[in-house]
């Protein structure tokens, strides 16, 4: 079997972000797995969300800023996620109401934005990202998602009050140290590999600071950055995951040897919610267990429920990097709503970072 080339890893990692996100989108934040199976069966293909989400608590979320609260604020609706304010005040509304099978959620769309920014700038630039991020988020019709995580709402609540974009990230709070903060990092890490591991870590940390001010998340992001960097450099995923797990005092060998159902490991031993303290161990567990199969990993993640979209994007990047784009089933790529646009963005991104390696494209 021929070795996976660097640029096959790049393509695999980037496609992995969007595939895992879109696969999980209809089942996002289903904590009742019986309800997930009732609504979708065992998800292996892209599906559209149901009209009613049985576990939705979007109506408890603050439309004027971070966290929970009422719907009196209009950051959602007027500043970002235009026209979506009304949906937040109703019980049972799906977080991704109105999206269609194969469509990506907001954080994955922001990962595309990072790719485009790096390609246009020829490298990672905080100023370029912030300009593009503000323009994208505040432009009506730029995306079709209903929900926006706390960090988006906090950022644009500050921005709407005239705070400079570089200072708009909210302070650490209950909803800050979450796995959603990892979704935009793979393009930054890959785009900064020419700077070595230290440079990639610095750029990833700098990017994270623009949207998430959290020491806990920063520590986890550093572990994830080194893991993806090592896999992109050709280290086998299982070996890299074992090394990363040491930082969390997690024994992946023993855990996998117990042969427990994935939903039990993610739902009971760790936790299926967004908090990085549970999500990163879940990512490492799935990456280690399914290191040789992109499809098995992302399908297992989706059907484990909870915060499967953002957990999935971080996982999909690892599995795509480890196995290369050729090991991703073609229907996962062609079935994405924006498949053609994503393909073009990935290829432009590759051209912009081509000096990382001297191998042929």
UniProtKB/TrEMBL annotation:
<dbReference type="InterPro" id="IPR005502">
    <property type="entry name" value="Ribosyl_crysJ1"/>
</dbReference>
<protein>
    <recommendedName>
        <fullName>ADP-ribosylglycohydrolase</fullName>
    </recommendedName>
</protein>
<dbReference type="InterPro" id="IPR050792">
    <property type="entry name" value="ADP-ribosylglycohydrolase"/>
</dbReference>
<dbReference type="Pfam" id="PF03747">
    <property type="entry name" value="ADP_ribosyl_GH"/>
</dbReference>
<dbReference type="InterPro" id="IPR036705">
    <property type="entry name" value="Ribosyl_crysJ1_sf"/>
</dbReference>
């Amino acid at each position: 079997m021929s070795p996976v080339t660097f640029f096959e890893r790049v393509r695999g990692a980037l496609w992995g972000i969007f595939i895992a996100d879109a696969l999980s989108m209809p089942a996002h934040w289903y904590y009742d797995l019986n309800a997930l199976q009732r609504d979708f069966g065992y998800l292996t293909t892209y599906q559209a969300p149901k009209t009613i989400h049985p576990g939705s608590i979007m109506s408890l979320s603050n439309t004027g800023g971070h966290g929970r609260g009422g719907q009196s604020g209009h950051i959602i609706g007027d500043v970002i996620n235009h026209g979506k304010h009304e949906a937040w005040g109703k019980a049972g509304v799906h977080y991704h109401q109105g999206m269609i099978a194969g469509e990506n959620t907001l954080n994955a769309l922001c990962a595309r934005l990072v790719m485009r920014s790096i390609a246009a700038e020829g490298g990672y630039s905080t100023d370029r990202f912030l300009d593009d991020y503000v323009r994208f988020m505040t432009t009506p019709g730029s995306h079709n998602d209903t929900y926006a995580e706390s960090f988006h709402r906090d950022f644009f609540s500050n921005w709407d009050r005239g705070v400079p974009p570089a200072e708009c990230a909210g302070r650490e709070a209950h909803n800050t140290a979450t796995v959603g903060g990892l979704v935009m990092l793979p393009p930054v890490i890959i785009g900064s590999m020419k700077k070595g591991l230290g440079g990639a870590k610095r750029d990833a940390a700098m990017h994270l600071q623009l949207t998430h001010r959290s020491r806990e998340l920063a520590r986890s992001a550093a572990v994830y950055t080194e893991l993806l960097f090592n896999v992109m450099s050709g280290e086998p995923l299982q070996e890299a995951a074992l090394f990363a797990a040491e930082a969390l005092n997690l024994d992946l060998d023993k855990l996998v040897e117990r042969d427990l159902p994935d939903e039990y490991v993610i739902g009971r031993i760790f936790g299926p919610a967004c908090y990085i303290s549970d999500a990163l161990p879940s990512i490492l567990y799935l990456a280690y267990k399914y290191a040789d199969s992109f499809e098995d990993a992302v399908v297992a993640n989706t059907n484990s429920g909870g915060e499967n979209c953002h957990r999935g994007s971080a996982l999909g990047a690892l599995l795509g990097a480890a196995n290369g784009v050729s090991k991703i089933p073609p229907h996962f790529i062609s079935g994405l709503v924006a498949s053609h646009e994503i393909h073009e963005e990935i290829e432009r991104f590759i051209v912009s970072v081509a000096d990382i390696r001297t191998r042929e494209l």
